[in-house]
Amino acid sequence: MRRLRDELGVNTTCGASNISFGLPHRHGINAAFLPMAMAAGMTSAIMNPVRQQEMEAIRAANLLMNHDPNGGEWIRFAKVLEQTATGISFSEASAAASAATSGRRGGRRARG
């Protein structure tokens, strides 16, 4: 991946769960793999965005790799994590956070 990014300047996509196919507790493996692949130049992944463990690893990697220079995305994500501590599912908390910020950040607006 690094050579593709550095030498050719191309974007790369991978199926994130392919690395852990058939293994037990595969989401932990995926959560470790994704930041490593990002550091090597991967620009996108085919993955399930409602897996909390994997999304937390990606958001943390973005912060630490300076892809979130002021930490705003991490802080917004931390609010989602706080909601899950109250018993709300990760997917519900993520959807609520997305809906709350979509109007302020130029996201898609509902038709009406």
Nutshell version of this structure?
The chain has 112 residues and is mainly alpha-helical.
Low-confidence region ranges = none
Oligomer: single chain
Q: CATH top level?
A: Alpha Beta
- The shape, in one word, is globular
Largest sheet: 2 strands, parallel
| Annotation field: number of helices | 5
Strand order of the largest sheet: 1-2
Q: For the CA atoms, what is the radius of gyration?
A: 16 Å
Per CATH, the architecture is: Alpha-Beta Barrel
Question: Beta-sheet strand percentage?
Answer: 5-15%
Question: What average pLDDT do the residues reach?
Answer: 88
Broad structural category:
mainly alpha
Separation, N- and C-terminal Cα atoms: 43 Å
What's the helical proportion of residues?
Answer: 40-55%
Order of helices and strands: HEHEHHH
- What do we call the CATH topology? TIM Barrel
Q: How many β-strand runs?
A: 2
Folded structure, characterized:
The structure is a single chain. The chain is mainly α and 112 residues long. It has one domain: Dihydropteroate synthase-like (TIM Barrel). Helix content is 54%, strand content 5%. The protein is built from five helices and two strands; from the N terminus they run H-E-H-E-H-H-H. A two-stranded parallel ribbon has the order 1-2. The radius of gyration is 16 Å and the shape is globular. The termini are far apart. 14% of the residues are buried.
